[in-house]
Amino acid sequence: MKYLIVFILLIVSVNTVAQFGATQSMGTVNTRVVSNGAFDATKGLINGVFADTTAANASPIDFYNGAQIWTSSDRNFWLRSTTLNMWIRMAKFSDVGGAIPTLQQVLTAGSTTAIDNTISIGSNDFNIENGTEGGLNINQASRLYRFGNYNGSNGTQLSLDDVNALIELRDAGGTGFYSDGINQIMSMKIAGTSILTLDGPNDLATINDMIVKLSDKSTPGTPASGTGYLYVNTDSLRFKNDAGTIFTLGTTTGGGSGTINSGTTGKPAYYTGATTLDDFAAVDYATSGTNVLITTQNTTDVGLNIKGQSSQSANYLNISTSAGTGDLAFINASGEMIFGGNTDAGVYDLQINDGLWVNNVSAAAGNGLVLSPSTTISSGFVIQNNSGGEWIMAALNATSLKMFTSSSPIYISPGGTDKAVFLSGGGMTMPEGSAPGTPASAMAVIYPKSDGLWYGKDDAGAETKLSNPSLNKGAFIALPTSTDTVDVWQTPVAITITSLKAVLRGSSPSVTYNIGFGTSIQSPTAVFTSDITCTSITTGCSNSSGFNDATIPAGSFIWIYTNAASGTIRSIAFTINYTED
Q: What is the pTM of this model?
C-alpha cells in the first residue's frame, strides 16, 4: 500500500514539469505487478514500445491476452489476442476520416494495409439487425456482397454480385425466406440478365419440388473440348456438344398412345405414324444366341428386301470375319453372289470356291439341286476344284444335260468308292466284280466281271456277255473223203478259236480232220496239235482243248481239211466257235 501512495504522490509532484523528475521502479523485468483494483493514471499511461510485433513476440508480453503495445516502425497500437495467437492493430483517428468512427468504419479500417484483417467473435453469433430492411453489405470496389433479411416483395436474401454477374437468392412472393420453407428463387445473372433460375411456387414445401428456369437465348458457339452447352432456344431445350452438334431435348408430341406396344424385351421400335411408335412384330433382337431374327407375318411377306440406288457401286450385302469386309461372301452391285471371298466379279452369277454340299435329307424333302434346262442357256454352272479342273454342266435342251471336263476325269463314287470313271481322253472304266442283282422292272444293268468282260442283265435276270461275244462259223461236206478241203472264211480281225463241233450222218461213219489257217493257203498252221477223229451220229464231237495255236491273226484264211474217212458217210457238218480279239 505504501508503494502505491508513493507512486501517486510522485505523479502529482511532477505534473507541471515537462518531464517526470524522478523514476520509481516496481518489480523486475521478469516480474508481473498485479493491481487488484482499478488503475488510474492521471498524467497518462506509457505503453511498452517495440520496433514491431515480431520484437514483441520475443518478450513474455505476447503470452497475455489483452496486452497493449506500441510499435515504433509503423507507429501503431496493438492489442494481443492469445485466442487468435496474433496482434490486432487498433484503428487510428485518421483511418476513419477524422470523425467519430462508425461500425462500418471500424470494420473497414486497415483495408489499405498489406496484412489480412480478421474479426473474431469466438463462439457467439454476430447479429446485424435494423428492423425489416437492415442487412450486411460488403463492398469491394464494384463488387457487392449482400446478406439481408428483407421479408417484403422481392427482398434479397443473398446476393453475390460482380457487376450484376454472380448469384442471387431472393424471396419470390413475400411470404418469408425463413418462415415458409424453400419458396424462393436462386438466380444466376450475366450483365444484369438472368441466365439460370431455380424457382418454386409459393405452396412448395421441399427442395425436391424446385423448378429450373433457363432463359431463351441465341445459339452459342461450339464449346471447348470435353464440355457442352445446355440452353433454351426458341422455347426448346437444346444441347450442343464439343463437335458443334445440336440436340433438341424433350418428348415427342402428337397423336397415338405414345407407348411401345407390349414393351417386350428385345423388340425394336418403328414409326407407325408421324409421331407414334410401336414394336416390330417381325423382328427380335438379343445380345446372345441369334442376335437378329426376322419372322414373316404372312405367307406373301418378304422377310428382307435390300434396295440399292440407281447407280449403286458398293456391295448390297457383306458377310465378313471379325477382321474382314465381305471376305466370306458378298452380293455386289451387279447382283452377283460371291462366296469364299473371290473378287472375280462379272464372270459368274454364283461362285463357290471351297465346295458345295447339297443335302437331300429324305425323299420327302425334295430335290437337293435342280437345274432348269433351256435351249437359250449355254451353261448351267461351273464347279472348279483347287487344281484348276472344271466340271461344266450345260443345258442343251429341255430334256438332256451334257457333262464334261476341261482336263480331269469325271468320277462317279457312290459311298466314297469309285464305281465309274469317265476318262478325259474318252472311254469309261468300271471296277471288275461279281454280277449284281436283277434290276427293277423295265431296267437293265451293265457291268464288268472278274473275267475282264462286259455283261448285261435284264429285268428277268438273264445275263448276256456284251464284250468278246462267242461267235461261230459253219461248214458242210457231203460224202466226205480222206482228202477233202473246205475254205470257211478270211477273218478281217484277229480271233481266237474256242472250240470245234462236228456231227456225222451215215452208217458207222468215221472222219479224221483239223483246222488250218494262214495268210497264205500254201503255208497252213494247224489249230489242234493232233488231228481229231469223230464217229458220232447223235450229239456230235466237241473239242475245246489240245490246241496247237488257237489265236489267228487278222487277214488269215481259215479252212477245214480231212485226212481219213471210213464207213458209209453221207455228210459231216462243222461249227467253229471263236471270239474276236
A: 0.33
